[in-house]
Structures are given as structure tokens and as C-alpha cells.
Amino acid sequence: MKTPSPFCFDLPTRIYFGPGIAKNLPSLLQEAGIRKPLIVTDPGVRGAGLVDPLLSRLREKGFRFEIYDAVQANPRDEDVDRGAETMRRSDCDGLAAVGGGSPIDCAKAIAVVAAHGGGVRAYAGPGKIPGAAAPILAVPTTAGTGSEITYSAVITDTSRAFKFTVKGSQIAPKAALLDPELTLSMPPALTAATGMDALTHAVEAYTAVGAHPLSDAAALYGAELIAQHLERAVRDGNDIEARSGMLMGSLLAGIGFSRSDVGGVHCLAEALGGTYDLPHGVCNAVMLPAVMAYNRPCCQERYGRIATAMGISWNDVEEGATEAVAAAARLATEVGLPSFSSFGIPAEDFPDIARKAAMNGSNASNPRPMAPADYEAILRTLAGAS
Ligand SMILES: [Fe+2]
To answer: Which of 47, 221, 239, 290 is deepest in the core (most CB within 10 A)?
Structure first.
């Protein structure tokens, strides 16, 4: 190991993991000092029946609460601002987010706006949260985003069709309740997309400019667990062992990237998601092999280790790096994710997507510098290949 640059690693979120653990939500709210939570979720999660049992437990334990279940996919500024208004009006003193990355990110941003006023767009970028925010508990129902332990919330600016990040330790959840049973009802396509998001977190965390030994450890084992369990979870949603492996892999990848960063794959995925409202995990899956191929000259050894973590043996490091890129592409195909052409994006939009990708706060973390022209070249290659 090379002597790392100075770094600090903290993990303010208390992690609870295991089948059935979500039933402890009332006691953990109590422990966090929350008397009346705003339950933040979305119509799909609520419709899947994942929220009502938790609400019943809250009622049994005498909790008062308010529900905000209108969060949209790729959560929008207006979702946050409406949620903050609901929180203020109902006098809630904390939040419990139940769902995938959208409700959890939205809850984090609501906590900021409810505490400090204005619209969420005023808090774009690191260091913009002026003070404390209400405590948040996160109950993920997908295995992918890692949002349950990150410091950031990705929100769509609807005026510019652009995703921005609200970032600060104030919005790290106080506790994350990772219950694999809550992920059992995810349909195969959502399992695949969120799982590829998690793999992207692992790969980008491990190769980001700010990677350090602790983020490396989390990212590599995350990649291993995801490679072992994603296909199984897609094939049989009731395979609790596969669901547990994915939830743990996603958590570890989340710990990895939130303490190093992501890179060019997320820059492109967020540009696409913000512009066309496409699912985050699908965008990542499409972009991951292409950006890995671009980064390869700077990441040979690290890609070799990723290939090993994914269960692939190799003879020399160049072969290992090639295998890692191929393994990411193979996994995306095997779990049924589409090609870039299925998005139907006209080529005249590529310069704008490339410009947005290069403006992303994580662009500087990519291991190989990426200018708008590099992003555009990737888009053109993908369009030509599909
Ligand atoms: Fe992501």
C-alpha cells in the first residue's frame, strides 16, 4: 500500500442490518429524540405495501406522524419544497424515509429546507447547509443507492433540467435500518437497475481521485457481494440470501463512494437523468463499461483487483483490467438492462449532455480527466455501437 494522503473517515449513521429489523423503527425514532416524524415515501413503495406495516407499528407505540408520499422518481425541487411545507405545517420534528434513493434523498433535502427556509435550489453544492437539520432515519427498500448512509441528496432543478447535490454531514441519517425483507417485492427490472447503480458506486469509489484505504476496503467487498448476488436476486426475488448480499453490497459501496467519490459514470448518468427523467441505475449500467474503458489506462491495477473481486482470474494486470470492463458489461446484459440506443436520444443533444456531465461536482474525481469533448466522444461511440 502507498502511504495515503491525509484523510478523515467518519460514519455518523448507526447501521442496523437484518431480516425484520425495520420493525424497530419506533424505538429508533425514540432514541433519535423524534416525537413526530414526517414519513417520506413514494406512491410505488406505498402501493407495494411496505409502508403500512411500519405505520401500524408507529400507531401501536403511540406515535403521531404525518405522511408525505408524493415523491417522484429523480426527485424534483418542487417535491422537496412541498415536503418542507408539509413538515413545517404539521409540526414534525424529524423524518423517516422509506423507499429507494428518491424518498431518502428527498427527505434529506426536506430536512434542510424545513430548518432554514427558502427553496431547495439555494442549497446546491457542498458547504451550503448553514446549520443543523432535523434528524433523519432511513429505511431503504432497494439495494442500490447507498443513500441511507451518505451525506448527500441528488435533486432535479426543474428550471434547468439539471441534477444538483445538497451535501453536508448535517443530512447523514442518524440511523439506517437495512431490512432485506423489504427488498423482496422489488421487480426484476428494478432489482437489476438499482444493483448496477451499486456496482457503479463500488467501481467509481475504488478508482476515484479521493480513494483511500478505508473506502477501498468497503468498495472492493461491495463489488464482490454485488457480483455474487445480483443475478440471483434478479432471477428469484424471494431469495433472501441474495437480497441480503445485495443490500450489504450496496451499503458497502455506498460507504465507499460517500467517503471517496463517484466519477464520470455518475456525471453522465445524472446529466441523462436530469434531462430526460431516465432511471438512475439504468443510466449508470449503460455508461459504466464505456467510462471504464476510457479510464482503463489510468486504472489498470485497480481494475485488475475489481476483476478479482468479481470472481475472475487473470494472468497479467492488463488482462485483468480488460476483464473488469467486460464483466461490468456482461453483468448489465445478463440482468436485462437495455442499450444506450433504447433511450432514443438524438445526437444533436450530445453536446448539451456532455456539457452538463462536465459541470457535475464529481467530474474532478474521475481518475482520468474528462472534458466535455471526452463525454461527447463516449456518447457517440455508444450511439454507433448500438
Ligand atoms: Fe448512484
So the answer is: 290
CATH fold of 14-183 reads Rossmann fold (3.40.50)
Alpha-carbon distances of 309 from 20, 199, 302, 316, 334, rounded to whole Å: 29, 11, 11, 15, 18
Residue 195 Cα to ligand 1 middle (Å): 10
In the prediction, which pLDDT does 2 show? 78
Kindly report the pTM of this predicted structure. 0.96
Fold of the 188-385 domain:
Dehydroquinate synthase-like, alpha domain (1.20.1090)
Distance 85 CA to ligand 1 centre (A): 27
- Break the chain into its structural domains and give their ranges: 14-183, 188-385
Average pLDDT on 72-90 reads 97
CA–centroid distance, residue 35 to ligand 1 (Å): 32
**Cα(258) to centroid of ligand 1, in Å?**
10
User: What confidence tier does 55 reach under pLDDT thresholds 50, 70, 90?
Assistant: very high
d(CA 197, ligand 1 centre) in Å: 5
